[in-house]
Fold this sequence. Notes:
Blueprint: H1 8-19, H2 23-35, H3 39-63, H4 70-78, H5 82-109, H6 120-141, H7 143-171, H8 189-198, H9 208-212, H10 219-248, H11 251-256, H12 261-306, E1 317-318, E2 321-322, H13 323-338, H14 341-365, H15 375-398, H16 400-431
Antiparallel strand pairs: 1-2
Amino acid sequence: MKSKKIGLKEAMSIGIGGMVGGGIFAVLGLAVALGKGGTPISFLIAGVIALITSYSYVKLSLTFPDRGGTVKFINQGFGKGLFSGGINNLLWVSYIIMLSLYASAFGSYAPNLFQITNDKVIDSHIYLSAIIIFATAINYYSIKVVGKIESYAVIIKLIILISFVFIGAYGLFGNPNLSQLAISNWEPPLNLLAAGMVIFVAYEGFELIANAAPDIENPKINIPKAYYYSVIFVIILYVIIAIITVGSLPFSKIATAQDYVLAEAAKPMLGKIGFTIITVAALISTFSAINASLYGGSRVSYEIAEDDELPHQLTTKLWNQPIGLFITAVMTLIVANTLNLESISTAGSVGFLLIFAMVNYVGFKLSKEIKGKKSIPLIGFLLCLIATTVLIIQQYSSNKTGVLIAIGIVLFCFVIEYIYKKTEKNNNKNAT
């Protein structure tokens, strides 16, 4: 059966849907806490790194169109060995981290609509656990349903966010908090860079276009457009949302409502109705992001196992889906219920910055083969490494746990790969 071809509009909606998932709802408050008046600049810095990285993705997607996406690119550049296996494991774990971030955001917004107990923290854990289980059930029920939910969710959340932008921009006139955007309220440059990197997870979703590359029609024209247009659109959207949020609410209010700040930012313009509408948008967005990322995560684990970088048993099915779906869901439940939002965000950003650094390096290394420039991937590689270093140093003083967890995850991914490779080698020796 031939798979249906994807047009530019659908390819862009994969990228935009992947980025404007739960990211902006989850990390906006965190970004303002770190960047203060310079938060829009932090979003811009993170966006520029994503845009430069998308160049490598464009060239690699055109040369090696494969549903394995990032996994395929890493293997092309480094060969199938300990290093590529460790990086690909990190990709799977980073999916789990992202899922935990979206679930945490869902858990932060949901109690504002309906409280189950009188304790918001308990409610948050109930909601985030329930939504992971519900999304997992949908993934088991039908992948078609996941796709349908995604296509509707992208439209709904974009309509609500773009409406928020227009109404919010109008509401800024005469708002006394507008002065918070003054340069005097910006954090120092390194802090702005660190804030941009903590929230880098809000941009990682463009890499999902790579998985759809084999199905995109007229690839030479549509693949570059899909990447660049979706990343540029999201950069503009995020920067404007950051300007409106900082210009609408006093910093003290943003700090109090840090986990659901976008809904709070709608209050000055639209009152309780605005708060409720944005809360609903956040729930739809985070739910659709969980849905899509569960599917993506299970695909990644399947691809890694198929390439013999993890036990081949991961290609087996549990019920009607790869066993990776069940493992991804269980791990997400554990992470989302044990780590706080900042630690989850830091770990996710470190993971994706390192993965993107390696994809940029592959773009640099294979520049002849992919008919690309050497300079752009090299700049992307260096920027990702510098950004990771700044993030780790800056966060170490304020969020030591998050940094240690992030470093621990990276090491864990390579240790697991080393153990697997060693076991395989011994098994092959014994077999002969």
